[in-house]
């Protein structure tokens, strides 16, 4: 079977070894799971639930032949090989006898998370102290402020508004003039129209693809249930990203581009008009239009130009009018704040 996407996960048996068990009745330790069905020291039957995997380097190779997991005698609870029809210990028939439970390989220990840092008692005291100081500061500032207000109450203090006199009206109307110009655009060559004028080609990365890059493997022990276990190697294929190259084309094409802006200005007395355009036939056209309605205001010490939203609102304000505006509310070029 061929796999076009590369290697698949695989699991390989690297060896078959004896499980170990310790006798519960005498000092016999590290007895072999399949070889020693009974304790060589005292003759006690092996308890398959007490089998364990030998430590690394102390494995005893076992025959790979496998008849199935041991079964537990329903009469005396002794385990017997899968092929036996009767219990080797008490002779009871093994019809319907259950397989022994498999021993699980211990899981890799999880990294222990550090305990959360204990809350220090003094931190509460610190917060209380800072809070108290802040409160005290607020109270003090408040007291000083109210005293200040009381003492200067009659004099009035600094005004928050200012008077602005409208001295002139200005309007500006602009039209962009666009021209057909050559420009270079980039596109993938297989997406370019056949008639396009291609001026350059380069190789560039166009996405990526996964390519096989070895595998990562882990070993684990699997209890076969008959006093032996398999050392099994599980491997997952690894992949890395590899750029996919494709041809990138520079295409010369014609497009509209703003080449200049025609402007017309006037005052309130003149009717606002759009600039008259002189465009080269076929090669130029009128583009975006913009207009602005500005009022020139005299405020103490300076002149400000602000803009009105519409011509009608701009005309409704007359030269010589005085408006009260918020101090700092008039900024050059920004909307008038009235
Ligand atoms: Zn024993
Ligand atoms: Zn039995």
Keywords:
338 residues, mainly beta, seven-stranded antiparallel sheet, two-stranded antiparallel ribbon, 11 strands, 11% helix
Strand content: 35-45%
Which ligands does the model contain, each kind named once? zinc ion
Oligomeric form: single chain
What value does the Rg take, in angstroms? 46 Å
Fraction of residues in helices? 10-25%
Order of helices and strands: EEEEEHEEEEEHE
Estimate the mean pLDDT confidence.
85
* Beta-strand segment tally: 11
Cα-to-Cα separation, first versus last residue:
82 Å
Number of helical segments?
Answer: 2
The main pleated sheet reads as: 7 strands, antiparallel
Shape: elongated
Q: Could you say which structural class the secondary elements and strand pairing correspond to? A: mainly beta
Contiguous uncertain segments of 5+ residues: 138-156
Describe this structure in words.
This protein is mostly beta strands and 338 residues long. It has a domain at 171-326. It is built from 2 helices and 11 strands. Strands 1, 6, 7, 8, 9, 10 and 11 form a 7-stranded antiparallel β-sheet that branches. Strands 2-3 form a two-stranded antiparallel ribbon. Strands 4-5 form a two-stranded antiparallel ribbon. Strand 7 and strand 8 form a beta hairpin. The longest helix is centred in the middle third of the chain and has 32 residues, at 121-152. The radius of gyration is 46 Å and the shape is elongated. The structure holds zinc ion (2 copies). The site of one zinc ion has 8 residues, from loops.
């Amino acid at each position: 079977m061929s796999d076009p996407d590369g290697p698949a996960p695989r699991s390989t048996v690297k060896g078959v070894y004896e499980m170990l068990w310790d006798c519960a009745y005498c000092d016999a330790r590290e007895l072999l799971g399949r070889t020693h069905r009974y304790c060589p020291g005292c003759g006690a039957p092996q308890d398959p639930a007490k089998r364990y995997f030998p430590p690394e380097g102390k494995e005893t190779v076992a025959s790979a032949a496998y008849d199935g997991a041991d079964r537990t005698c329903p009469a005396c609870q002794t385990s017997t090989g899968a092929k036996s029809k009767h219990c080797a210990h008490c002779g009871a028939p093994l019809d319907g006898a259950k397989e022994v439970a498999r021993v699980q390989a211990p899981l890799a220990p999880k990294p222990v998370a550090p305990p959360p840092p204990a809350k220090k008692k003094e931190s509460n005291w610190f917060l209380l102290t800072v809070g108290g100081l802040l409160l005290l500061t607020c109270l003090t500032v408040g007291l000083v402020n109210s005293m200040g207000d009381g003492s200067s109450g009659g004099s009035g203090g600094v005004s928050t508004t200012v008077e602005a006199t409208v001295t002139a009206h200005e309007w500006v109307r602009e039209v962009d003039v666009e021209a057909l110009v050559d420009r270079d655009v980039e596109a993938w060559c297989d997406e370019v129209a056949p008639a396009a004028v291609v001026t350059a080609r380069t190789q560039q990365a166009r996405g990526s693809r996964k390519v096989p890059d070895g595998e990562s493997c882990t070993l684990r022990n699997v209890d076969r249930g008959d006093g032996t276990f398999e050392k099994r190697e599980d491997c997952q294929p690894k992949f890395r990203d590899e750029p996919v190259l494709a041809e990138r084309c520079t295409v010369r094409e014609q497009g509209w581009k703003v080449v200049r802006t025609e402007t017309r200005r006037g005052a309130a007395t003149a009717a606002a008009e759009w600039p008259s355009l002189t465009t080269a036939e076929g090669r130029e056209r009128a583009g975006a239009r913009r207009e602005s309605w500005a009022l020139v205001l005299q405020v103490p010490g300076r002149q400000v130009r602000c803009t009105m939203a519409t011509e009608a609102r701009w005309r409704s304000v007359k030269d010589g009018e005085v408006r009260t505006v918020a101090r700092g509310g008039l900024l050059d070029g920004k909307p008038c704040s009235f």
